[in-house]
Design brief:
The complex is a heterodimer. Chain A is α+β, with helices and mostly antiparallel strands. Chain A contains six helices and ten strands, in the order E-E-H-H-H-H-E-E-E-E-E-E-H-H-E-E. The longest helix of chain A is centred in the first third of the chain and has 18 residues. Classes of the chains: A alpha+beta, B alpha+beta.
């Protein structure tokens, strides 16, 4: 069973390859994404987040799910020296940076709970796979070429780990030019993280990308995380353990 | 641009001349370092001000690494005043290397607030507005003699032309350096750093060197089939993805 739906403003693709997977199963998982969207989206007026931002509810009124996400956000903020922050300059809260990875991780847990072992969920560039693909081999994930969206520049074999990429492909005048290295300050255009699960990968991708050239070193120093960084010259740097996730 | 400023007397003039010589010497030292093959990578640094148009940016060396850099630029119009400097003896290069980070950082780290103490004359215009295609003679050329190293190289009695002179943009380890000197009555009456290497990036690079050197590669298109693609979503490509996926879905229903 494979299906793609657009939820949370992004395409969410699910492939569940086990025998017996049926439409009802996929519907149940997609329904959870939709529930997360209704609850967390700052773009929906009646979401819990929007009501909190408007002051209609207090923090003490928040549901356990929102508290769980907020706690994860706070934990990530502390683990990343404040680089992960859901409080916007205007004081409002936007937890989207956590909700996506959290929702994909939940979906993977849901599928496992249903007894499925071979599936892949790809949502807005974040990926969580489990088991094997339709060839009976490890799932493979390509890192998109930040300068050429229809190409990939690296193949990863995450083996059950999660993959997430943060990037900044289109910022004004940063057209790819390998001859000049000095144009503005955003040296890094793409940072892909492999973590124990997609939520780990996603939250650290967001934070370490914000660290600029230090981000990959930050990842290097955290056990259980690997990274692949691409700078605007088309030069990649990778953490020393990334080779574990490269094809043979 | 060539508006002379008021005359300033001896002590200040001498101090400024010294400043200029130090600036030139440091610039040359950096240049030497920049041209010394290094195994390390990723020495690019952002410039703190509005960047020059790409075509006019002098690039005598590729600003990325020596070992993994993309093809070097053709550099049709490199910084001629620099290019004519003698590639001095091996004895100079190690010395400039030895000067490296701590000393080299001294001049560019002079924050803008301190500039007022350096200038004899206030800048004629705000710094960022200095046009990048300014054709004023380059500093060493204006002085008539290329500075061959860290020792002052202008013979006593050398006549300086009156006016303001803007150096070319010199690519240094941690960014570009560009200065303007004002000469009046044959004396340097002002030195202004128009652009200096970004010391913030500098410190980042230093911390980088302190850590492990990570493996690098030039990215290359892979033709392997993959099951999924990881990418950032906060781009307009996300919109393309959405459209593409919806179209696929539309063909199935």
């Amino acid at each position: 069973m494979r299906e793609t739906r657009v939820i949370m403003g992004m395409p969410i693709s699910m492939a569940v390859l086990d025998e017996g997977a049926c439409q009802h199963d996929l519907d149940a998982v997609f329904a959870e994404f939709e529930a997360a969207d209704r609850q967390f989206s700052p773009f929906k007026d009646d979401s819990e987040i929007s009501r909190l931002n408007r002051g209609e509810i207090a923090e003490s009124d928040l549901t356990p799910r929102v508290r769980e996400v907020f706690a994860l956000c706070e934990q990530t903020k502390q683990e990343t020296a404040g680089y992960f922050n859901i409080v916007r300059p205007d004081g409002t809260i936007d937890p989207c940076g956590m909700v996506k990875g959290w929702a994909i991780r939940n979906a993977a847990r849901q599928l496992k709970g249903m007894g499925f072992a071979n599936f892949c969920i790809a949502a807005g560039g974040d990926i969580q796979c489990h088991g094997v693909n339709d060839q009976g081999k490890d799932w493979t994930v390509g890192v998109r070429n930040p300068f050429q969206p229809d190409e990939i520049v690296k193949v990863l074999v995450p083996k059950g780990c999660g993959v997430a990429t943060s990037g900044n492909y289109l910022r004004g005048d940063h057209i790819y030019d390998p001859h000049t290295g000095r144009y503005g300050s955003d040296d890094i255009v793409s940072l892909t993280i492999i973590g124990a699960d997609v939520m780990e990968a996603d939250r650290y991708a967001t934070a370490s990308f914000a660290m600029g050239r230090d981000g990959i070193h930050f990842i290097e120093n955290i056990p259980g995380l690997e990274g692949y960084e691409i700078d605007r010259n088309g030069v990649a740097r990778m953490t020393s353990g990334l080779e574990k996730f490269l094809p043979c | 641009m060539l508006k002379p400023h008021g005359t300033h007397e001896s002590l200040a003039g001498k101090l400024l001349l010294s400043s200029a010589l130090v600036a030139v010497s440091l610039a040359y030292g950096w240049w030497q370092r920049e041209n010394t093959p290094r195994p390390h990578i990723a020495m690019t640094a952002p410039v703190p001000q509005a960047p020059a148009p790409q075509a006019s940016a002098p690039a005598s060396t590729p600003s990325v690494t020596t070992s993994v850099a993309p093809p070097p630029t053709t550099a049709t119009a490199p910084d001629t005043s620099i290019a004519t400097l003698p590639r001095s003896a091996a004895s100079v290069a190690p010395k400039s290397n030895a000067v490296a980070p701590p000393n080299a950082s001294a001049a560019p780290q002079a924050p803008p607030q301190q500039e007022a103490a350096i200038y004899v004359s206030p800048p004629a215009s705000p710094l960022p507005t200095v046009p990048s295609n300014d054709v004023s003679p380059a500093l060493p050329a204006a002085m008539g003699t290329p500075a061959p190293g860290v020792v002052p190289a202008i013979p006593a009695g050398t006549h300086l032309l009156d006016g303001d002179f803007v150096s070319d943009r010199h690519q240094l380890e941690w960014g570009d350096l560009r200065v303007r000197i004002s000469v009046h009555g044959g004396l340097i009456t002002g030195v202004q750093i128009l652009q200096y290497p970004d010391h913030r990036s500098h410190s980042l690079d230093l911390s980088e060197m302190a850590g492990p050197i990570l493996e690098t590669e030039v990215i290359k298109t892979q033709h392997a089939q993959v099951d999924a693609v990881s990418s950032a979503t906060d781009t307009s490509y996300a919109f393309q993805d959405v459209i593409a996926d919806v179209l696929i879905k539309a063909t199935r229903e």
